[in-house]
Amino acid sequence: GRLLVLELDGPLDDGAAAAVQRGAEALGVQLVSRHHEDQLSARSRGAFLDALASRRVDELEAARRARVLGFESAPPALLPVVVAARDDEVDWAPLAADVRTALVRAGFTALVGAAGAQLLILVSGQGAQAEPVAERLRAALAAHGVGTEHVAIVIAAPAESWTAAGSNLERCLHHAPVAARGPASAWHDAAGVALAEVLGELAAAPTLKAFIDDRLGVLLDHDASDRRRTELLRTLEVYLRHGASKTAAARELHIERQSLYHRLDRL
Predict the structure, then answer these.
(1) In the chain, what percentage of residues exceed pLDDT 90?
(2) Beta pairing, strands 151-155 & 188-189
(3) Where are the beta strands (DSSP E) in the chain?
(4) Over pLDDT 70: what percentage of the chain?
(5) H or E element in which residue 73 lies
(6) Long-range contacts, 50-58 (Cβ 8 Å, 24+)
(7) In the Cβ-directed half-sphere of 55, how many Cα atoms lie within 13 Å?
């Protein structure tokens, strides 16, 4: 930053210049210290919310830890929210405090913590519903230049106990990676299980990887080593996407139908 000093009662002398230099250094130390405090607060709250979602705390312990962290609200109506980054470039520590402030100014009670590439939130209070909470979150994030093209806001159903809130927060955490890979939206509903979520979890399964290697391994090896770049895998994808329509597939691939027939024979 830059510290500006105005001459009012007289010109600045050497002593004033030295005082300004020391003042700038002291201000810098204070700002760094405050940043570390914000980081520690965001991480401690995030650790509690992560433990709640992982069901590592019971009802009484959750209520006690929430009070220690400044969250005086109690069930019913705890609204779980996860804000997931679409990449790893979002620094949640300085954002967490501003997000909480924005929610409090809107009349809500909020517990906001950072956990990895995600911001975990519990919201309580009159009118703590998905739409108004998401609206406040978008406004708070937009003030930092973070829009829905950078993050996905995932909200589950309100809960009537700490354990239920943890379960619903876990639903948000499961849904968040799928939402972060999908198209931008004002917010994503984690109340139900989406097909993309099921497929997303299957993508990491060793059995599916073995199935792909078994069925498509030869094709993948061919495309990797083929100098003529006939792209048989992409041909297969386009052909299936158009419901086995050769005319439509050839048009998208920008090849003659005879060339498509040849590729299909090779497939």
Answers:
(1) 38
(2) parallel
(3) 79-85, 109-115, 118-124, 151-155, 188-189
(4) 91
(5) none
(6) 50/113, 50/115, 50/120, 52/162, 52/165, 52/166, 52/169, 53/120, 53/166, 53/167, 53/169, 53/170, 53/172, 53/173, 54/166, 54/170, 55/163, 55/166, 55/167, 55/170, 57/162, 57/166, 58/163
(7) 6
46 in Cβ contact with 115 (< 8 Å) = yes
pLDDT tens track for 71-117 = 876 666 899 999 998 876 677 777 888 899 999 999 999 999 888 78
91: nearest Cα among 130, 144, 161, 51: 144
Coil, strand, or helix at residue 152?
A: strand
Half-sphere exposure of 58 (CA within 13 A, CB side): 1
Nearest CA to 75 among 207, 164, 200, 202?
164
Average pLDDT over residues 230-256: 91
Task: Kindly state the tokens that stand for 44.
Answer: 């401690």
Q: What is the pLDDT of residue 228?
A: 64
Report yes or no: 110 and 104 within 8 Å, Cβ to Cβ: yes
The pTM (predicted TM-score) of the whole model is: 0.64
